[in-house]
Amino acid sequence: MFDFDAYLERIRLDGPSDLASIHRAHACAIPFENLDPHAGVPVSLGVDALHTKLVTSRRGGYCFEQNLLLKAALEARGAKVETLLARVRWGAPPGVLRPQGHLVLKVEIDGAVWHADVGFGGGTLLEPIPFGPGGPYEQSGWLFRVVQEGTDLVLQSEAENQWSDVYVFAPEPVPPIDLEVSNWFTCSHPASPFVTGLLISTQRQDGTRIRLSDWGDLALVVATPNDRTVTPVERDAIPVILGEQFDLPGFALDAKRRISPTPGELHPPT
């Protein structure tokens, strides 16, 4: 049985546990991180493994981990949840077709259907939005909308009065085996950016986004809807930044200068 009470404690939610409240609390409490694939550690999608890693051990995770944990929590509350695969367009050069490497949720609860996603590392939805074309939707200053593209749906975000694609997806559920294949590529393939690069991010209730990444020069980015600050980072500073900015203590650089958990720290088996 899914430990819903432990999950609520992890996301620091002690008030109403409606869909919007759960989604926002999760998005602001559990950081996005790819430390396991970056260190060569495979990622398990089993619910027990996700609960152990993200809830008990208070780690973060990437989209498959984040959204499958949210799925388990919402199903424990009585929701019907379907999994959809998306192609990320955020940061992609024009015309580049990326694999279906992002997980999105379609949630039916209390007579309504929602688009939920707590696992997009570039700045995820704070709250669910109505499923299908619509918007714009304002969330702590950030604007989102969904547009139709043939039979597909495209999530877009607005910055500097210009809409940009975040990801595109077919509004059709995919079986767990397809998630496993996409997750394997994301966490294991030598060409995956989650294996070759580092992306850690979190969001605050006021809408502030904080991101540490070496997709380009290693830097800490702090962004609000109206401002953006980029601070170059030395690799030796990463463990301190993980603890101070992302509530991810207990990491150090190993002999090969990979980011690894320090001895004695909780690090659940995969």
Describe this structure as you would to a colleague.
With 270 residues, the protein is α+β, with helices and mostly antiparallel strands. The protein has helices spanning 4-10, 19-29, 35-38, 47-56, 63-76, 176-188, 193-196, 238-246, and strands at residues 32-33, 80-88, 102-109, 112-116, 129-130, 134-139, 142-149, 152-159, 162-169, 199-203, 209-213, 219-224, 227-232, 251-253, 259-261. The protein has an 8-stranded antiparallel β-sheet with strand order 5-4-3-2-9-8-7-6. Strands 1-10-11-12-13 form a 5-stranded antiparallel β-sheet. A hairpin with a 5-residue loop joins β10 and β11. α4 (47-56) packs across α5. The chain is globular and about 55 Å long.
Total domains:
1
Query: Can you give the helix content as a percent range?
Result: 25-40%
Count the strands?
15
- In CATH, the architecture is 2-Layer Sandwich
Tell me the radius of gyration: 18 Å
Give the helices and strands, then pairings.
Blueprint lengths: L3 H7 L8 H11 L2 E2 L1 H4 L8 H10 L6 H14 L3 E9 L13 E8 L2 E5 L12 E2 L3 E6 L2 E8 L2 E8 L2 E8 L6 H13 L4 H4 L2 E5 L5 E5 L5 E6 L2 E6 L5 H9 L4 E3 L5 E3 L9
Antiparallel strand pairs: 1-10, 2-3, 2-9, 3-4, 4-5, 6-7, 7-8, 8-9, 10-11, 11-12, 12-13, 14-15
Give a quick summary of the entry.
The protein is α+β, with helices and mostly antiparallel strands and 270 residues long.
Features:
globular, disordered C terminus, alpha+beta, 8-stranded antiparallel beta sheet, 31% strand, 8 helices, 270 residues, Arylamine N-acetyltransferase fold, 15 strands, 5-stranded antiparallel beta sheet
